[in-house]
User: Which sequence fits this backbone?
């Protein structure tokens, strides 16, 4: 029920019956909501619910097919970001749009003026603004040299320097450390207190509880619930978001929503007292990049068969380099890797796969699959020679085998000959998993950010397959920037910070604070 | 994204049809504009057209000459398509023809090929031509994998270098120039011995189509099968779409790049070999005569299909003959043919937008 | 080698480098903004032809230069339209335009002048700078050049200033490295890239004009002879910096000058090799002397808003 007092305030932004289609996919359907000035309004929904589409419509990146938007009562029909910016709307995107080899101040100047540029004046303005909001920012630093959290602050400053009336943030906390999240929410509160409206898009309930004045819940492109008392109605909101009861969800999957106590469901025997020969031994692995920066610093870890070890840490602390070396895509500067007795340190991808190492890469589209090729070709991409005689590809056999795997792994598509790009993110990831897990001699599974961007159903499926691999005694290394995920799935956790292991502990919820501190660089 | 069925068959299917329509329209539009240009320069269009037809179909000799030309275009075009499958753009056909011609001449004249038994006198120089072309194509490949050099620039620069290399060869008596009896001796090589000349299909010099024709047809079939039915074809495609993912899947990027460009170069060299041993019989400045670019345009026009290359190559082969006659008889400069080709490529480039497909 | 000969060598190097410097600067800006202009060669040829015919028709070389610039405009617009609005493959576009221009200029030249004409065309005058021109030995040989060179130098310096100290410069850098950033900041990526291509066209017109009415005072078919590709190679060699590009162009110019210089020194190198030298040098430059992956990230890709 709407508080009568609130209807007296004219909404800053009002959407009425907005619909947006991409080809045959309806991303947003008859969505109506309003944003009031001075509030922090959260848009809640799981991955794929239409939150980003909503933001893009507000910011003018796309144009609605149906419905209308009104800004301060006037019809608002932006044809591009310049219209939105001119109307006082600023947005922090999920994937930053910063120029990597330019300085912070130049990135901020971009789009703010014409003609000759007074860099010094802008730098001073920047510093003042940052200080005002309680954080430090070096205007002359290059984006390349900044951490992910710092880069996000650049994006934020870029927006706030325009003194926007509507400040939109699309899933900003996914890449942040726990205390960085707190500062971000504080900034949002301050901006709202200053009279502007803040729209915060998220799928994390903890944030809702802490920061939201009002919440709109999206599911499957539709507005399914609203609340003016989110902290009090959190259970109802969750039910609306996932259309079901939290308790019925796979507990590990639910944990990624930040609901209640993450439970760990481990099928099979916990690692016993008798020492088992380690399946994977990583010894002093070091990666120094072409600029002389140490990206991975003496990484040492042993994983037993059937064990799941999680690597926690904010993106950009060496995880990519670790995965690249282990999958044969990068030569380490120092150190060795052993799979049982076999040294895999310098093996190329083909040999890595032959040795029984399966890799689910963090960037599915860049490294994991080739979207222009068919589903069948992708599922067997690393095993095509198994379907080759005298150089000729036995296509019928390939398609048949693919259909088989697709059924087993619930990869939903019109057929194995369809272009991989036609599959949803969740189905694509299932296909990649199908490929890696069904390696005949799988001894080691490396999964990096495997559930990023997936809806709860797909997340549950991924965890199921990872556990299945464990049951076959494969060693699993799970790299994830979602601490909740690691808590739910891993047996123990190591924390990476600036390429070094800060510490090592069991995946116990009681260790949460300690892990959070380590993620922020505090040695324990 | 709509469901697109990915197919690898050679025959024309749903997704090729819009491509074929685009190609045909591009040719038609360019042809029409050509006619307009003829009118604009004051030549009577009927005269020009009759000269054109005369030049293309007027005599068995004319037809044979067109076919011989088409062979060279087709080979360069097929090489382009194969390399393009791996998203590599070979613009060095002209240079690859040149080095092929140099190698064929050298081996035919001074390599002792003439005295070899049955068939070898022309096969060995052809092989030499292929190897020379393959090296000329592989060099940009190696540069690409070692240093990341854009192959468009490297193949192009090598092309210029090759053309000047040929010039050097025919200028210098120490290289391939025929012995200078006086200062007026032309800068060209000796004529190759009869045994090294390619046998004609009919044995009749009034219809001088050589064995290059059946050879090219076989090569085209092999190329088509390779691209659509073999593992190598899939690997080339994978590398073309996403080299990183292909690499992670165990496909060697380095191997594919050097192989693809090497094959393209080899076919270009072979074209040069056919041109020398089957048509021109001696090496002189301007040997490649722009055939590399015709082949390139044929490759572009074909939009990835080997059948398309054959069609385009034939089109350009006859277009050239017609153009030459148009100049001789009706006074229309052959540059017009180049204008038409340029228009075709530009139209194709822009048309991709309208069928929603990358060119 | 005497000082006089050395001076002549320097002077020739500069003179032969001028078209590359002009075209290279234009191409640099275009590539920094994200558009690979393979059609530089065609645009230079159009400029050469347009200014030659213009100078011949009006009797005034400066008017000819202006006509050359105007003549390149449609070609540059075509390149910009194809690469940005129609999102065509930039390499295919470039090759197509080059073939088209080669054919069209040859055709037009034959029609206007006949097949074998080497008609003398009024050319641009040289300029002797006040102090520099009076330096003994070097003065005349090095510094007395066609005035277009000095205008070119001013333009190059201005370009450097714009790239470094203006909002446009920032936008150009961003458009080639991360066009999304440009778009989300409310600046039109298309507008920036059109500016880049049109500037490249303008500079190519000057470069081409220098070749025809600046240097040899005539037009010959296909007279650019790959100079456009050398300009592209110079940008690569210079790692997409203006100073690097300028250096590379001077280097290629010197290599070309050797063609005329070495014979006078009695060094007996085959002429063909000397003609080949700049291309060989360019190949070495792009093939190893330049580093990897320093190209603007979005070079050659059309931008689609997502």
Assistant:
């Amino acid at each position: 029920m709407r508080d009568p007092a609130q209807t007296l305030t004219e909404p800053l932004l009002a959407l009425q019956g907005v619909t947006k289609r991409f080809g045959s996919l309806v991303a947003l359907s008859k969505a109506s909501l309003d944003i009031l000035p001075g509030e922090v309004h959260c848009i809640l929904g799981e991955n794929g619910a239409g939150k980003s589409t909503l933001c893009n419509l507000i910011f003018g990146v796309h144009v609605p097919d149906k419905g209308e938007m009104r800004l301060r009562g006037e019809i608002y029909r932006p044809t591009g970001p310049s219209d939105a910016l001119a109307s006082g709307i600023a947005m922090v995107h999920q994937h930053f749009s910063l120029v990597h080899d330019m300085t912070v101040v130049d990135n901020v100047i971009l789009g703010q003026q014409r003609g000759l540029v007074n860099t010094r004046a802008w730098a001073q303005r920047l510093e003042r603004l940052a200080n005002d909001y309680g954080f430090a920012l070096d205007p002359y630093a290059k984006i390349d040299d900044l951490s992910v959290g710092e880069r996000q602050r650049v994006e934020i400053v870029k927006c706030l320097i325009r003194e926007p009336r509507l400040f939109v943030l699309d899933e900003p906390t996914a890449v942040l450390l726990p205390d960085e999240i707190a500062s971000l929410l504080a900034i949002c509160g301050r901006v709202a207190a200053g009279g502007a409206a803040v729209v915060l898009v998220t799928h994390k309930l903890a944030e809702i509880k802490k920061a939201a004045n009002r919440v709109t819940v999206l599911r499957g492109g539709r507005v399914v619930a609203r609340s003016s008392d989110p902290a009090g109605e959190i259970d109802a909101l969750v039910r609306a978001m996932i259309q079901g009861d939290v308790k019925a969800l796979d507990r590990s999957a639910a944990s990624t929503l930040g609901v209640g106590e993450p439970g760990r469901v481990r099928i099979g025997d916990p690692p016993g007292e008798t020492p088992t020969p380690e399946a994977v031994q990583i010894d002093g692995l070091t990666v120094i990049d072409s600029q002389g920066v140490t990206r991975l610093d003496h990484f040492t870890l042993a994983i037993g068969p059937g064990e799941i070890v999680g690597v926690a840490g904010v993106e950009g602390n060496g995880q990519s380099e670790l995965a690249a070396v282990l999958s044969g895509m990068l030569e380490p500067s120092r150190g060795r890797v052993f799979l049982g007795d076999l040294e895999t340190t310098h093996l190329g991808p083909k040999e890595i796969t032959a040795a029984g190492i399966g890799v689910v890469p963090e960037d599915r589209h860049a490294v994991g699959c080739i979207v222009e090729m068919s589903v069948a070709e992708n599922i067997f991409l690393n095993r095509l020679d198994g379907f080759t005689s005298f150089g000729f590809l036995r296509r019928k056999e390939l398609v048949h085998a693919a259909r088989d795997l697709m059924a087993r792994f619930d990869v939903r598509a019109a057929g194995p000959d369809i272009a991989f790009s036609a599959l949803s993110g969740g189905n694509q990831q299932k296909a990649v998993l199908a490929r890696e897990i069904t390696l005949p001699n799988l001894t080691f599974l490396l999964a990096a950010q495997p559930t990023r961007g997936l809806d709860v159903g797909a997340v549950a499926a991924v965890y199921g397959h990872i556990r299945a691999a464990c049951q076959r005694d494969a060693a699993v290394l799970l790299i994830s920037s979602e601490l909740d995920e690691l808590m739910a799935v891993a047996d123990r956790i190591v924390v990476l910070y600036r390429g070094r292991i800060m510490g090592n502990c069991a995946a116990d919820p009681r260790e949460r604070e300690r892990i959070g501190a380590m993620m922020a660089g505090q040695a324990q | 994204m709509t469901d697109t069925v990915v197919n690898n068959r050679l025959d024309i299917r749903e997704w090729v049809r819009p491509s074929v329509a685009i190609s045909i329209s591009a040719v038609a539009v360019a042809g029409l504009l050509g006619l307009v240009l003829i009118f604009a320069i004051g030549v009577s269009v009927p005269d020009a057209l009759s000269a054109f037809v005369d030049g293309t179909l007027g005599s068995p000799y004319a037809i044979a000459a067109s076919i011989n030309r088409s062979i060279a275009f087709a080979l360069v075009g097929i090489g382009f398509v194969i390399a393009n499958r791996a998203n590599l753009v070979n613009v060095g056909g002209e240079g690859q023809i040149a080095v092929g011609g140099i190698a064929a001449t050298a081996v035919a004249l001074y390599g002792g090929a003439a005295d070899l038994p049955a068939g070898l006198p022309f096969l060995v120089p052809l092989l030499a031509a292929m190897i020379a072309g393959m090296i000329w194509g592989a060099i940009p490949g190696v540069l690409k994998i070692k240093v990341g050099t854009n192959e468009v620039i490297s193949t192009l620069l090598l092309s210029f270098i090759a053309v000047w290399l040929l010039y050097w060869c025919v200028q210098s008596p120490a290289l391939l120039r025929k012995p200078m009896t006086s200062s007026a001796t032309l800068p060209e090589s000796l004529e190759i011995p009869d045994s090294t000349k390619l046998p004609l299909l009919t044995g009749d010099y009034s219809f001088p189509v050589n064995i290059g024709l059946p050879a090219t047809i076989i090569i085209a079939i092999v190329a088509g099968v390779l691209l659509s039915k073999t593992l190598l074809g899939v690997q080339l495609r994978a590398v073309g779409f996403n080299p990183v993912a292909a690499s992670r899947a165990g496909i060697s990027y380095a191997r594919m790049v050097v192989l693809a460009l090497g094959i393209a170069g080899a076919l270009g060299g072979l074209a040069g070999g056919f041109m020398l041993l089957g048509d021109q019989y001696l090496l002189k400045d301007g040997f490649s005569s722009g055939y590399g670019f015709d082949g390139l345009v044929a490759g572009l026009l074909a939009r990835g299909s080997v059948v398309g290359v054959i069609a385009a190559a034939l089109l350009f082969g006859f277009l050239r003959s017609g153009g030459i006659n148009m100049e001789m008889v009706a006074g229309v400069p052959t540059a017009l043919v180049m204008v038409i080709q340029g228009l075709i490529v530009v139209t194709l480039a822009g048309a991709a937008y309208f069928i929603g497909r990358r060119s | 080698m005497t000082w006089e000969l050395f001076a002549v060598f320097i002077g020739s190097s500069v003179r032969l480098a001028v078209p590359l410097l002009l075209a290279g600067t234009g191409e640099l800006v275009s590539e920094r903004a994200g558009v690979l202009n393979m059609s530089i060669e065609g645009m230079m040829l159009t400029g050469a032809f347009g200014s030659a015919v213009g100078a011949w028709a009006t009797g005034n070389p400066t008017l000819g230069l202006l006509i050359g610039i105007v003549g390149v405009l449609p070609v540059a617009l075509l390149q910009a339209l194809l690469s940005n609005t129609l999102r065509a493959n930039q390499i295919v576009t470039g090759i197509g335009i080059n073939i088209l221009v080669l054919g069209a200029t040859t055709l037009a030249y034959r029609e206007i002048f006949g097949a074998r004409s080497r008609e003398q065309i009024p050319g641009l005058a040289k300029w002797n700078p006040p102090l520099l021109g009076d330096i003994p030995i070097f003065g005349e040989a090095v510094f007395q050049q066609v005035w277009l060179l000095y205008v070119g130098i001013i333009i190059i310096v201005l370009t450097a200033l714009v790239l470094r100290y203006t909002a446009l410069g920032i936008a150009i850098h961003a458009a080639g490295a991360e066009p999304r950033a440009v778009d989300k900041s409310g600046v039109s990526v298309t507008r920036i890239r059109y500016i880049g291509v049109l500037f490249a066209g303008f500079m190519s017109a000057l470069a081409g004009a220098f070749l025809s009415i600046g240097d040899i005072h005539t037009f010959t078919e296909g007279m650019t002879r790959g100079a456009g590709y050398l300009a592209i190679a110079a940008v690569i060699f210079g790692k997409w910096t203006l100073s690097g590009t300028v250096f590379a162009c001077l280097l290629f110019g010197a290599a070309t000058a050797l063609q005329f210089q070495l014979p006078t020194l009695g060094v007996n190198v085959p002429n063909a090799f000397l003609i080949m030298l700049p291309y060989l040098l360019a190949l070495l430059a792009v093939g190893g002397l330049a580093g990897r992956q320093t190209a603007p990230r979005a070079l050659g890709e059309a931008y689609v808003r997502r």
In short: Chain B touches chain A at residues 1-8, 229-235, 237-238, 241-242, 244-250, 252 (CB under 8 Å).
